[in-house]
Design goal:
Length: 167
């Protein structure tokens, strides 16, 4: 009997995908427009446009930006569109919503461009533990992309997985 310890997981044909490896570096910023409104409730077009004209948009260079209004004001859709015309020359990505919506948008783009050729006919583990804010939707989109080509999909760590799909 051999005393050598064999790492069967390392020697297996399992392919692990860790979405944290795809997490793009860059600052995530929320622009809350409530302070740009009259009494944080009313959008006065002239004042709003003036504020946009005087705002330093270059501060968002290479940032991921979420546009929101945290007051109960009713904001016309053109307001966020107008803000976008100012911030888009600087920002990497712009969404209307919160940080979760922003991360979801970022990962939707990543998954759309994810190449599944290397996983054709393979057993795949989608790693579950993450120190970065990976949106749940990213895992769903990844499964949708992988399922037609892989042999099986599991979730978790190589030592403890939950089977999700088997062809």
């Amino acid at each position: 009997m051999s005393d050598e310890i064999v790492n069967r997981i390392a020697n297996s044909k399992l392919k692990t995908i860790d979405l944290e490896d795809f997490y793009p570096k860059g600052i995530r910023t929320v622009i809350d427009i409530k302070n740009w409104l009259f009494h944080e409730q009313i959008l006065k077009e002239t004042d709003f446009r003036e504020h946009l004209k005087n705002h330093d948009w270059s501060q968002y260079k290479d940032q991921y930006v979420a546009l929101t209004c945290t007051s109960d004001a009713i904001i016309p859709s053109w307001a966020f569109m107008l803000i976008t015309t100012h911030v888009s020359p600087f920002a990497k990505t712009i969404v209307v919503g919160n940080l979760t919506a922003l991360e979801t948008s970022i990962f939707q783009d990543i998954i759309t461009h994810f190449n599944v050729e290397d996983f054709d006919g393979k057993r795949v583990i989608i790693k579950g533990c993450s120190n970065k804010p990976i949106p749940e939707t990213a895992y769903i989109q990844l499964i949708e992309k992988l399922q037609p080509v892989v042999k099986s999909i599991m979730f978790g760590e190589a030592c403890s997985t939950v089977p999700l799909f088997k062809k």
